[in-house]
Amino acid sequence: MGMRKALPVLLVLIVLASGCLFRPPAEVKFSIDKTTVPPGGTFHLIVTVNNTGKVGLVGATLILGNDNFQIVQEPSFPEMLKVGQSVQLVWILRAPEKPGTYSVQVSLELRDELRRTWTGFYSHFTITVSKELLAPERLLLSIDAPKNVGGGESFSVLVRIKNEFRSPVQLINGSFTLLPGMKVVSAPAMPHRIDPGKSVTLNYTLKAPFAYRNGYVSYVLRYFTGSSFESTARSFRITVTWRPWEEGDETLMQAYGKEYHWIVDGLLVDEYWVKRFNSSSRVDGERLRPVALRVIDNASSDVEAAERVFRWVVSNYSLGDTTTTLEPEKILPQDRISYVEAQILTTALLRSLNIPARIVSLFNGTDCTIRPITEFYTADGWYVLDIRHGFIGTLDEYLASPYFPRIYQLVRNGHRVVAQSPLTLTGHEHVDVTAQFTEDLENRLTNQVLKRVRPNLRSKLTLVLANMPPEERTFALFIFASAPNGGDLNRILEEWSVSKIEKTVKALYEFYRSMQWRDDFTYYWKIFAGEVP
């Protein structure tokens, strides 16, 4: 009997000794580039993550232990950090306005591809906020870069390094943390050392994406002083504007690649639509373009232009359900139009602005006019514009809206999501894009919901989802994504226990799983949160 009790204890000790139970999936190193900053000044937190585990890492959350400090800009985590790979992440932090000495504890939570959250990565720094003259830096780093560039433009960034130490400094490497889609086109050879009092200028060439960007680009220099390895960093703010309506065909083809044809295609919908509504859907972009340009005014991106077109259509027309024409030029002068006509007109106006756009709908095997929306393409992927529900945002944001779950249910019951792509007006001419809406859905929903959850509650959300069966987990994510605002979702996560959330989701899932869901999933959130008796 005594031996039986001893065996489990012995097994636990063996597991602990081998490190199998608590072995972290990564090596994480923290550093900051300065310890003294002026009131309201910024500094850089540099985090290196080396995946030493057995599966890929897909996300990182930084938690600041001092509310006096703010995150100005956080980095993008790689889509997948594979085993053996490492990444350097740079957070730009802002110090408080009040002078003083502050203790700042930071922790990092990592998420792996198996939906597990790993904690236990901590560091601690002391930051002095002072109006007094700061201690001079011994290795001076300055950057000369443009403040504004156009989409797709290559530009020069000059990095100047001056050694004010009394001994030589060995340079190890320099690297950029770029805005999404930005690339380093060319980089100079890094000199091995800089002698005391000497300086060096490095000329890098960067290329902007064909997209609007406004944020900070950081440069981190690692060096060895003879006694220790150190890092210093500098950031510069840059704005990238992208106005496709001002560009020619060659640039547009480079920007949009295979999606370019959604600009120049002359028809919006196929023969089935034409026969059902007894109308053509031919687009004359040149005739619509003057109207579209007045609507968007001085927009600085394709997304901003689409938002202005969306607002203009919603505010300029009374909307109903009676469709009389599919011709954009006939829709334009009306006072009252249908939601279908609004999507047709919006799509045509976007094409006239050199923005790839298309009508997307559901297809039940016969009818392909079900629940039409507009999609438009950008350097960041497809966006959705759903006029009936007042939605505009990225495709993934649409998946995590209250208006997608019913579409998902219809797809599960046999419908397909199709993009209208007519060429000859013979029967159904559409492209099946169901996979774009359903592929890797759970991870995409999880990533969107996590963005709305406070950092200190994200691990709790992950724990809630971990033990659910796949379909129940998707249902739970639809509920969480349908919360009217982030505050409501965070309140539930903060006040409710994991067990209560799990049991409430299960009860709702079991009751509603076989029913036809409402078009607006917010109703089910209200039931979940106890707002509907």
Topology-level CATH name of the largest domain? C8orf32 fold
Taking the alpha carbons of the first and last residues, their distance comes to: 54 Å
Regions with pLDDT < 50 over 5+ consecutive residues? 1-21
Structural class: alpha+beta
* Count of the separate structural domains: 4
Strand content: 25-35%
SSE blueprint and pairings:
Layout: H1 2-18, E1 26-32, E2 36-37, E3 42-51, E4 57-64, E5 70-73, E6 86-94, E7 100-112, E8 117-129, E9 139-144, E10 148-150, E11 154-163, E12 169-177, E13 183-186, E14 193-194, E15 199-207, E16 213-224, E17 229-241, H2 249-256, H3 261-264, H4 271-277, H5 285-296, H6 302-316, E18 318-320, H7 328-331, E19 336-338, H8 339-352, E20 357-363, E21 370-378, E22 381-386, E23 391-394, H9 395-399, H10 405-412, E24 416-420, E25 430-432, H11 434-438, H12 441-452, H13 458-466, H14 470-481, H15 486-495, H16 498-512, H17 522-528
Parallel strand pairs: 2-8, 10-17, 18-19
Antiparallel strand pairs: 1-3, 3-6, 4-7, 5-6, 7-8, 9-11, 11-15, 12-14, 12-16, 13-15, 16-17, 20-21, 20-24, 21-22, 22-23, 24-25
Task: Describe the fold and architecture.
With 533 residues, this protein is of the alpha+beta class. The chain has four domains: 25-129, Immunoglobulins (Immunoglobulin-like), CATH 2.60.40.10; 139-241, Immunoglobulins (Immunoglobulin-like), CATH 2.60.40.10; 245-436, C8orf32 fold, CATH 3.10.620; 443-528, no CATH class. Helix content is 31%, strand content 33%. The chain contains 17 helices and 25 strands. The strands form six sheets. A six-stranded antiparallel beta sheet has the order 23-22-21-20-24-25. The protein has a five-stranded mixed beta sheet with strand order 10-17-16-12-14, with no helix packed on it. α7 links the parallel β18 and β19 (336-338). The longest helix is centred in the first third of the chain and has 17 residues, at 2-18. It is globular. It starts with a helix and ends in a 5-residue tail after the last helix. Residues 1-21 have low confidence and may be disordered.
